[in-house]
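Quick one, probably user error.
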């Protein structure tokens, strides 16, 4: 089969095409004919930075995949040959990813693709949907009528989190910058805040009567996390998907603070079936019209992965950058 590989870490132009052996099916796994994959910040990090998870150079990157089951391993009963599936199942820690014609995946990490989506649209969902679910449902336990704040409305995780929180019955406020304001208004949040115009104090007063938000999901982190701590109510919850340093406000406001690291089950083999179960629930919400991925207008194949990575890192993409076969 054809695959795009990297032999060393570096810029987006390190990818090269190579003939590789088609993966052999094994117990508990599927061989999936790849139809599409999306570009996540995790993929660009694994391509460029030495991490504990960069264990399989020369490496076939990319975790997100949508495709068709071509072989089913022993012990797998929930899938059959010909099924259209999606998941986040490789491209990290020694597991080859989706930048190839075929991909070996753990069946527990996969789910039936939403029927209402194309392969291209479905490939945009796995990593960001699982991350949003783990933050809102598993960690912060958002429920009906909770006042929820989501930073980064049009980002990969942010735009799914808005829709997921609304499906849970929450009242959702989301922040964005001026250049994405119009797009953010289409995602279903109750309130959109231009973070370049309004201070935290202003939108906390306007949308929570100065009480603060019950739950805050920060997809930006870094120094920005202090704005999330400021926006949360006393004894509220804050979750982030990126590293932070100063957590003093967590103690001073009695916050429940959550770090969401989506690859843990995939990398360490812990509770992998939870990811397949989450994606099954996400597919149900998609087919019920409650979640729709925001896909960037760019149109690259997996053989143009260099351009896909450059598009994401340029900051000009609106929604997920997706590569197709």
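Nope, works fine. Designed sequence:
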């Amino acid at each position: 089969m054809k695959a795009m590989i990297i032999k060393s870490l570096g810029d987006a132009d390190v990818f090269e095409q190579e003939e590789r052996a088609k993966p052999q099916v094994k117990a508990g796994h599927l061989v999936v004919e790849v139809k599409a994959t999306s570009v996540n910040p995790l993929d660009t990090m694994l391509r460029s930075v030495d991490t504990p998870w960069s264990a399989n150079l020369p490496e076939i990157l990319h975790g997100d995949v949508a495709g068709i089951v071509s072989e089913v391993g022993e012990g797998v009963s929930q899938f059959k040959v010909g099924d259209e599936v999606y998941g986040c199942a490789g491209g990290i820690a020694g597991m080859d990813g989706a930048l190839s014609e075929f991909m070996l995946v753990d069946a527990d990490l996969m789910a039936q693709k939403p029927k209402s989506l194309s392969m291209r649209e479905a490939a945009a969902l796995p990593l960001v949907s699982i991350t949003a679910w783990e933050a809102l449902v598993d960690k912060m336990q958002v429920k009906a009528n909770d006042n929820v704040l989501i930073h980064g409305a049009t980002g990969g995780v942010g735009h799914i989190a808005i829709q997921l929180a609304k499906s849970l019955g929450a009242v959702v406020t989301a922040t964005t910058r001026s250049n994405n304001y119009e797009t953010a208004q289409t995602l279903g949040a109750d309130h959109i805040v231009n973070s370049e115009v309004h201070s935290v104090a202003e939108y906390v007063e306007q949308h929570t009567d100065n009480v603060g938000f019950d739950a805050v999901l920060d997809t930006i982190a870094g120094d920005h996390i202090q704005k999330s701590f400021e926006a949360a109510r006393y004894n509220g919850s804050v979750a982030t998907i990126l590293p932070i340093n100063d957590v003093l406000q967590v103690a001073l406001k009695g916050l429940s603070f959550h770090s969401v690291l989506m690859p843990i089950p995939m990398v360490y083999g812990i509770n992998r079936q939870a990811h397949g179960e989450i994606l099954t629930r996400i597919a149900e919400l998609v087919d019920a019209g409650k979640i729709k991925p925001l896909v960037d207008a760019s149109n690259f194949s997996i053989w143009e992965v260099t351009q896909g990575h450059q598009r994401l890192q340029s900051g000009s993409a609106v929604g997920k950058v997706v590569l197709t076969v």
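The first strand starts at residue 2 and ends at 5.
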